[in-house]
């Protein structure tokens, strides 16, 4: 079993990084070479700005290359709950921002000719308990009328046509959702950004940033750069003012990928080959790959990723997979990895400007499509169009008692386990 992401192992790595020192001055420094940073860099360079991307490791080496490869529309929340907390207009606008984010990914892949197996597969959200299906059904009319006319309820009797498992009690189908090979998309996006004129520096961790007349002075391990504007696109990293550390909670999430299963076994477990998620708080997300593997992810454990933690989490995921699809019998696991999610308390992204630094973050596990969309949106915001930011009106309060390391996660994990049992 390889302890690396399947997506990065099966993509040709980006080869256009700058070899020289980080020096001089640019219009915009983008800190972080994940999907947010690369998408912003491409859009900014295309608009005529001089752009440097400063990446601590390799492009898409963190969450952007370590995820489940779901490009889903819809929010993490039940739409009715979102309406209750934000009002109908805001909830609808946020829901539609996720629709637009999937469209943005498809458009960029097509504009830049990125071969990444993008496919509008649709997503099925699976009720792990009868009460969960009842809740989905109760909110369905509102969702369909106000936000997602294409959504469809799938009662338990019809579910076998979607997923070959007895573990679920119905579901909801969102046909606009998609899937893709994130490693190939990420490398292609980096190539596209450099083709448009952006300079990408890998192995260039930013250590300090300071405001100075006319912009910012940014110190990296490979030299110092001056920039008129800065976009912080560092995902769940600790870099940045305490403002962000108090508001973002880093969460571990884990993925395993099986050996190729062959067409018969794939047809038996996922005949429609959509992206699938489950309704438990500590739930699972899964999909197949074009070469017939099952990609199976979940939170598994409340620990941050490390080699030992990933392996332990992989064993938890394997047990869940076997319980969901016992008909598969013994299955070899070829890949296992973990990654860190940048979560906000309400699981909605945040973007804007804080102390002269632009930022987009907090995708809370729904960021493959939204990071790409927000990269473009923030390029527009930095060019003087604040209305391009769909999250501009959201308040962002600090998490009480949180100053960096998420000391409270074991307690939250315990609480979630109890909630999963009783609700
Ligand atoms: C296991 C897992 C599964 C997921 N599954 C899905 C999914 O199926 N669908 C979905 O929509 N979302 C999913 N997500 C979430 C999604 O991957 C992220 O929201 C998205 O990739 C965030 O992109 P980003 O560019 O903002 O952050 P990142 O990809 O984290 O990029 C930030 C970059 O900043 C760099 N950086 C950090 N500090 C510094 C520094 N000091 N100097 C320079 N560079 C720095 C990092 O090295 C990193 O490359 C998943 C996440 C994980 C971890």
TrEMBL record:
The alphabetized UniProt keywords are: Oxidoreductase
PANTHER family recorded? FAD DEPENDENT OXIDOREDUCTASE DOMAIN-CONTAINING PROTEIN (PTHR13847:SF281), SARCOSINE DEHYDROGENASE-RELATED (PTHR13847)
| Pfam hit, one | DAO
A GO term for molecular function: oxidoreductase activity
Q: What is this protein called?
A: Glycine/D-amino acid oxidase-like deaminating enzyme
Q: Which GO terms describe its cellular component?
A: cytoplasm
Provide the FAD dependent oxidoreductase domain boundaries. 27-380
Q: Which Gene3D superfamilies match?
A: D-Amino Acid Oxidase, subunit A, domain 2, FAD/NAD(P)-binding domain
